[in-house]
Amino acid sequence: MKLTLNNGITMPALGLGVFQSAPEQTTAAVEAALAAGYRHIDTAAAYGNEREVGEGIRGSGLDRSEVFIETKVWVSDYGYDQTLHAWDKATGKLGVDYLDLLILHQPAPDRFEKTVAAYKALETLLADGRVRAIGVSNFMPHHLKQLLDSTDIVPAVNQIELHPYFTQPDVQAADAQHGTLTQAWSPIGGITFYPGWGEDRRNVMEDPTIATIARAHGKSPAQVMLRWHLQQGRSAIPKSTNPARIAENFDVFNFELSADELASIDALDTGMRNGPDPDEAREERFAMVIPEA
After folding, report:
1. Quick count: other Cβ atoms within 10 Å of Cβ 68?
2. How far is residue 175 CA from its own chain's centroid?
3. For labeling, which of 112, 159, 169, 202 is most exposed (least CB within 10 Å)?
4. For residues 282 and 276, is the Cβ–Cβ distance under 8 A?
């Protein structure tokens, strides 16, 4: 299943996420995903595993053109020239000569002028053919408006925390209004742990409503949640390093949720995020330096 971005590029709707995948596990996870049928891998400079993602893609035996590679520029590389160089670092580690999708990892509102300059560098990379599409991550509606007021190209993608307990309808609506595709990180419910955030969170995988729907379809709760994303037109990038779970997460194209089932999942929204607030400055984290190699 593919989604068409606002510049006409198509992107596989379901991808493998590798946030907090240890480098020594990442290559095997990517190979397992590509063997299972995935053709979209999402990584980031800040994850510290771009090199291993590249190794996994090469190890799969697939041609580079068959795999949609998405990565992210970290805040410490924001600024026009710095972001152009961030492309050099990312492609060098991945071992490729172009990226399918390059996005800004955070809005970083405490230094938004650098965020805008970084996005203008993405526009240059797009014009040069070094990336096929550009976008943002964790941008709230006011960040999107600020960005659009200062730049020329509407982001193709906005990757945000989105799962049944946190659906961000205002962000989804703003994305749709601008023609930006919403992409869900933590799409099956905040399993990934963010130190200092969401310690009191509930595990969506154990939600009784989702369990009931899963039983009705002979599917797992994770599969139900991924199907919910796909049927509502979103991209989702579930993370796993377990080959069986990676394959299970991809086995979501042979059943359909009813309108009532989709609505019952929508109704689970609590309005509470598990990850960091994009409006909060995190100076120490934002200062993390991305190595050259």
Report:
1. 21
2. 14
3. 169
4. yes
Q: Which of 38, 47, 78, 119 is catalytic?
A: 47
Mean pLDDT for the stretch of residues 275-290: 93
* Location of structure tokens 């893609």: 57
At 154-190, the pLDDT tens digits run 999 999 999 999 999 999 999 999 999 999 999 998 6
Q: Do residues 290 and 77 touch, judged by C-beta distance below 8 A?
A: yes
Q: CA angle, corner 102, sides to 106 and 248, nearest 5?
A: 90
47 is catalytic: yes
Nearest to 116 by CA among 69, 82, 90: 82
Q: In whole angstroms, what is the distance from residue 241 CA to residue 56 CA? A: 12
C-alpha 49/C-alpha 54 separation (Å) is: 9
9-46: b (≥16 Cβ within 10 Å) or e: bebbbbbbbbbebeeeebbbbbbbbbebebbbbbbbbb
Single pTM value for the model: 0.95
**Residues, the chain:** 293
- Among candidate residues 25, 40, 14, the one with its CA nearest the CA of residue 250: 14
Instruction: Annotate 76-137 with DSSP letters as a single string.
Output: GG-SHHHHHHHHHHHHHHHT-S-BSEEEES---GGGHHHHHHHHHHHHHHHHTTSBS-EEEE
